[in-house]
């Protein structure tokens, strides 16, 4: 009896709840893994391994021919120009939209729901979809990429700008308004000075993201390194592909360093930079203006011609061709299958990335693992998808693996920083009591970090649902594959239904992720 009571006292009271959660997770995740075509057999099939091995062997040595390096240099500059010009258009679009949805602009209250709906559409449709649509209108080249970035990033910037402005102290703006100032001036002089550093920091971060996005859009003919990479992969030219990948990784790392340096400078206390801030601001603004002008000049974009009456009529006719969407039962069944595949790709890819990212985050003090994380996150998902398709064949499993590889690099870095910031006292206490390193991590470090790790994972899931929707452009299943085929066949009514499904799925996942984060916090 005493022994029985002791065992009962030692029993974990939370064990039944954990077991129930595991069973529920298995019931929910099993069909999603099936929907993603998850198959370890395909991953380790000897024939597939030989194919991918032979292809990867062609990556060495990288191509260093003079003619190719000339094309590569031009494509690299074009990628930077697309990102810069796209961000300039996004900024021009974001400023008035942010004003309309900011609480300070109360005389425009009736426009608020309309503007928020517009922002949802701009952000919810992936930039690659916009690029593919604009390629159909304006033809191959960087114009499609610039316009696509301008729309998607304009929606993103406007939403975040509005949130930053609304989080500022409204008292100065309110005082100016009561003194007779118009609301735009009250916002300009009352809210903007408080939020300027944070607004600038986020804009710099988005420019870094735009560089990655501009590469991806090249896969649908929007110019830059992506278009060169797409050609190399289709020709199975591993030497050229490896040189392009190395160039892209250097470009991303350089942009990351520049972005972090600029954000650190912005985080410097005003008193530490007050004396030099005036002329530095002037030089920075001049450099930005010069960079934007040089980008448009290099791309040879005739912006006024895009807004002529003829161009407007052409665009209007193209937009009208998407309506009404195809709502036939047969097509809706196909779209529903695509929605399920896309959801499965995003969930399975994110879960695999979370496991791999956590494993790579554990030995964070070892330089080789840090390099692996940088490589994983620097290679775009579409590039990973072209490689994984060779390894496991076309279909959703290739998309899930591509998402997992890229996202593991992103989450691994975030996980490592979170684990490193955990207090050492609980772990040291368990170690001193005789626990091993693994047990100390599981019962001391991990519980404290779990909420932040889960929040990062849910945020990446929001991002991955958008990417999962377009991985089908390279044969990785889901809604993207449906959309690519229908646009290629000029079936715009069917394509419209797919785009609406993409938008609805993105909004639903955003809502679910936000609800889960609120429940955790």
Automatic annotation (TrEMBL):
It is found in: Cell membrane. Keywords: Cell membrane, Membrane, Transmembrane, Transmembrane helix, Transport. This is ABC transporter permease subunit. CDD domains: TM_PBP2. Residues 76-259, 339-511 form the ABC transmembrane type-1 domain. It is a multi-pass membrane protein. GO terms for cellular component: plasma membrane. The keyword Transport applies.
């Amino acid at each position: 009896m005493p022994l029985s009571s002791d065992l009962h006292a030692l029993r974990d009271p939370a064990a039944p709840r954990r077991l129930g959660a595991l069973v529920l997770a298995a019931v929910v995740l099993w069909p999603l893994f099936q929907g993603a075509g998850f198959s370890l057999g395909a991953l380790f099939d000897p024939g597939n391994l030989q194919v991918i091995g032979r292809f990867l062997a062609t990556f060495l040595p990288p191509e260093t021919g003079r003619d190719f390096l000339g094309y590569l240099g031009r494509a690299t500059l074009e990628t930077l120009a697309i990102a810069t010009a796209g961000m300039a258009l996004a900024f021009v679009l974001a400023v008035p939209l942010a004003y309309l949805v900011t609480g300070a602009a109360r005389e425009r209250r009736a426009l608020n729901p309309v503007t928020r709906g517009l922002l949802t559409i701009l952000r919810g449709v992936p930039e690659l979809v916009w690029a593919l649509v604009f390629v159909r209108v304006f033809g191959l080249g960087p114009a499609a990429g610039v316009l696509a970035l301008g729309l998607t990033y304009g929606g993103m910037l406007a939403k975040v700008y509005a949130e930053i402005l609304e989080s500022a102290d409204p008292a100065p703006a309110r005082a100016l308004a009561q003194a007779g100032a118009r609301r735009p001036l009250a916002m300009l002089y009352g809210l903007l000075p408080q939020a300027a550093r944070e607004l600038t920091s986020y804009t710099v971060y988005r420019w870094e993201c735009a560089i990655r996005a501009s590469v991806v859009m090249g896969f649908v003919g929007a110019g830059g390194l992506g278009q060169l990479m797409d050609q190399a992969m289709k020709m199975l030219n591993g030497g050229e592909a490896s040189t392009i990948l190395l160039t892209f990784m250097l470009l991303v790392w350089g942009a990351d360093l520049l972005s972090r340096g600029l954000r650190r400078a912005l985080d410097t206390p005003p008193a530490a930079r007050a004396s030099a801030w005036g002329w530095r601001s002037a030089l920075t603004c001049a450099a930005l203006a010069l960079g934007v002008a040089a980008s448009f000049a290099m791309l040879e974009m005739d912006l006024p011609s895009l807004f002529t009456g003829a161009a407007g009529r052409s665009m209007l006719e193209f937009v009208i061709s998407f309506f009404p969407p195809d709502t036939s039962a047969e097509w809706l069944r196909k779209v529903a299958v695509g929605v399920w595949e896309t959801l499965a790709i995003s969930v399975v890819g994110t879960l695999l990335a979370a496991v791999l990212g956590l494993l790579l985050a554990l030995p964070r003090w070892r330089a080789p693992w840090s390099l692996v994380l940088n490589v994983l996150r620097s290679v775009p998902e579409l590039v990973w998808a072209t490689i994984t398709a060779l390894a496991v064949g076309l279909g959703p499993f290739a998309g899930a693996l591509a998402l997992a590889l890229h996202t593991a690099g992103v989450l691994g870095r975030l996980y490592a920083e979170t684990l490193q910031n955990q207090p050492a006292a609980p772990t040291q206490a368990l170690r001193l009591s005789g626990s091993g390193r693994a047990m100390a991590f599981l019962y001391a470090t991990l519980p404290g970090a779990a909420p932040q790790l889960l929040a990062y994972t849910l945020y990446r899931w929001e991002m991955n649902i958008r990417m999962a929707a377009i991985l089908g452009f390279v044969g990785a299943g889901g809604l993207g594959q449906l959309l690519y085929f229908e646009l290629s066949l000029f079936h715009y009514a069917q394509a419209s239904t797919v785009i609406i499904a993409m938008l609805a799925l993105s909004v639903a996942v955003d809502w679910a992720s936000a609800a889960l984060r609120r429940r955790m916090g």
